[in-house]
Each structure stands twice: as structure tokens, then as C-alpha cells.
Amino acid sequence: MARASTEPLPTGAAKVVAVRDMFDRIAPRYDLVNRIMTFRLDVRWRRATVAALRLAPGSLVADLACGTGDLCRDLSRAGLRPVGFDLSYGMLAHARTDAPLVHADALRLPLATASVAGVTCGFALRNVVDLAGFAAECARVIRPGGRLALLEVSEPTNPVLRRGHGVYFGKVVPWIGARLSDGAAYRYLPRSVAYLPATAELLALFASAGFDEMSRETFLGGTAQLLVGTRTGARDASDSVNSAP
User: Dihedral, CA atoms, 26, 217, 74, 235, nearest 10 degrees?
Assistant: First the structure.
């Protein structure tokens, strides 16, 4: 089994470079490793993320850190109009979606204010350098009454589950990653959870940015979480063709 790394996690500009380079490297087998290490449960969780948006068919949705397009495909199947954004050229190059894709930083989106009905993001919050800035940017681009749905890893609160999850996430996942993809990247993965603030603080951060009705749902004993909120304002988030970027 892989040994846990004691190196400090990168921050600031160094984190941006490290995360971008890491995803460029693991892009070719990213989907394969995800399916194996989650026993394909990530597919179900992404579909739950799309359903949680509760948006009208045809609504425009920005999928941030879209990777290879998993959420974009699910959004399209649900009758929504996704546009994917990612910092990694490698991930975009290996994307398997018909949705428009844009190389962009989620903290500086090339979108007009209040131009989308919803935002999704899958397993990327811990890779963002500035969570408060991310929340503010989501609030900027989502129109009043629009929806936010963020899927992310988590840690169980039950001591027994937490211990088992720690062994699997901290040792088994890096072992799998090293054999199928990039060992360093999958040693970073379990450690990156440390970037996430406590649940109450995370929900408060998005509430302060302009989202109400913030809620949190957990999956598989608390190993994954879904954060959902509504942009403060009117409740009609139906989209129009003219709002497309």
C-alpha cells in the first residue's frame, strides 16, 4: 500500500499550478479510476446532483471544473443546456460530451452577470484556491432564483465508518491510482479533504455570498456530500436562448 505523504499541501499560486498539472496528467484514465474507486457510485451521485437543481428543461447551466464532461452529459440527458469550464487543458482534451467547453478559471468565469440558471461542480471544491471567491463568482453568474448544486467528498462522522473510510481513502485509493494512473495525484486526493472547512462554515460561506435555502445531503455514510442552494431573489429561473454566452 502507498505510504501517506507528510509534505505540506500547496497553497495560493502554487496550488493552482499543482492542481492544473495534476489533472493534465491523470486525464487519460480519470474516468476509469473514478468508477473503480467509487464502485460506480459516482454515477448515481452525479445524477442526484442534476436532479437537485430542479430547473426547467432548456435551462442554461454552467458546469465548473467539468473535467471529462460527466456532469455535462447528465445535464444534457435531463434536458438542460450545459456549458463546461475547466482549468485543465488535458481534461478538456479527453472530454466526452457534446456540450460547449471553455478553458477558464472558476474564479474568473467568462460569463455575464446573472446569465445562467444554475451551476454544478463535481468533486472540485477542495481544489479551489479561494472558496469565498468561488462562492461569490457563482452568485454573480447565477440569476436570482437560480440553483447551485455542488458534489464533493466528505468524511463520515461515525467513528467506525470514519476509520474504515480513512484506510480506504488514504491507502487503497492511492494504491489503485498508482497502478492505473499517477501515484502522486492519488496520494494528494485523500489529503486534499483538509482544504474543506467544517460543514457549518462551508454552508455559511455560500449563504453569505447570496444563496438561501442552503442544504447538505450525504451519501454512503457520509463519504460524499451534496450542497444545494438557491440564489437570493425571484424564484423563476427558467432559461432563454438569448442568455447563452
Answer: -130
Closest-CA residue to 203 (of 226, 225, 222, 227): 227
Contacts of 8 (CB under 8 A, 6+ apart): none
Q: What nine digits make up the cell of 74?
A: 447528465
Averaged pLDDT score across all residues of the chain: 92
> Model pTM?
0.91
- By the 8 A CB rule, do 220 and 154 touch? no
Which DSSP letter does residue 148 get?
E
CATH class of the domain at 12-153+198-232: alpha beta
Give the model's confidence band at 235: pLDDT under 50 very low, under 70 low, under 90 confident, else very high. very low
Q: Is the pLDDT of residue 213 over 70?
A: yes
For residue 203, is pLDDT > 60?
Answer: yes
DSSP 98: S
The C-alpha angle with vertex 217 and arms to 216 and 221, in degrees rounded to 5, equals 130
Q: Which amino acid is at 8?
A: P
Beta bridge partners of 81: 60
Query: How many angstroms separate the CA atoms of 12 and 17, rounded?
Result: 9
Taking only the tens place, the pLDDT of each residue in 167-194 is 998 999 999 999 999 999 999 988 999 9
Contact 66, 46 (CB under 8 A): no
